[in-house]
Amino acid sequence: FCKKMAKPELISPAGDWISLQAAIKAGADAVYFGLEEFSMRANAKNFKLSEIKKAAELCHKNKVKAYLTLNTIIYENELKEIKEVDHTAAASCPLSA
Fold it and tell me: Is the pLDDT of residue 3 over 50?
């Protein structure tokens, strides 16, 4: 009659390298982070697009899921940049079979 409850996933924000490393060290199952270029949070510390691959590699090395968030409105004139973000994120986080 008693069902075993699934283990909840601990997801932590990681706005910079220090908080990313702290989340991993603290045992987060997953982290989410944003980009400087696409954030509506004023004064937020976020990663540069060029850092995404390194951040994702650090997560994967430590068996931590990495989620990229885009916290902004995307305008038509930014679609070229978003395609670059998409390409970089996809190359940094290959799908597992």
Answer: yes
Q: How far is CA 46 from the centre of its chain?
A: 10
Cα distance between residue 14 and residue 4, in whole Å:
31
Residue with tokens 């910079």: 16
CA 14, distance to chain mean position in Å, is 7
Of 40, 34, 38, 43, nearest to 14 (Cα)? 34
Query: For 28, left (φ over 0), alpha (ψ -120 to 50), or beta?
Result: beta
Q: Is the pTM of this model over 0.85?
A: no
Instruction: Give φ, ψ of 20 to 5 degrees.
Output: -65, -50
